[in-house]
Amino acid sequence: MTRSGHVSPHLLTALRWSPAIVLGVPALHLAVRSATGHEGSGHRAWFLLALGAAEAIGAVFLLIPVSRRLAAWALAVILLIASGFHALGGELPPLAFLVYWAAIAVVATTSPQGPGKE
């Protein structure tokens, strides 16, 4: 961050790419495993396929300036749904989701020129 409160374009680029990779790659893997019958069965497999595909697509759109804000908020909702799915399965949602939400919120609300400006 600079003295004027603006975030460095290089830091924002890293912050966009990090969740895009960290969320997108495993989401794509989940979608492929679900589509090929290696992850769940029946409705569960379809849900995981849809969730993984939506997350992977959101991660890609996080890297495109015109869709960045919408993709960030969509990813936040997808992580909330994934957290609920973990909880329904008797698992604690990954604590890393909190870090992802924070990064996504910064990406959605900050630009190199200053908050809310693209």
Defining traits:
two-stranded antiparallel sheet, disordered C terminus, 118 residues, mainly alpha
Characterization of this structure:
Helix content is 69%, strand content 3%. The protein has one domain. 22% of the residues are buried. Strands 1-2 form a two-stranded antiparallel ribbon. The chain has helices at 9-35, 42-61, 68-88, 96-109; strands at 110-111, 114-115. Helix 3 (68-88) runs antiparallel to helix 4. It has 118 residues and is mostly helical.
Order of helices and strands: HHHHEE
Portion of residues in beta strands equals under 5%
Globally, the shape reads elongated
Give the tally of β-strands. 2
**Alpha-carbon distance between the two ends:** 17 Å
Average pLDDT, rounded to a whole number, is 86
- Classify the helix fraction into a percent range: 55-70%
The order of strands across the largest sheet is 1-2
The largest sheet is: 2 strands, antiparallel
Count of separate structural domains: 1
**What structural category arises from helix and sheet content?**
mainly alpha
Residue stretches low in confidence (pLDDT < 50, at least 5 long) are 113-118
The tally of helices reads: 4
Radius of gyration: 16 Å
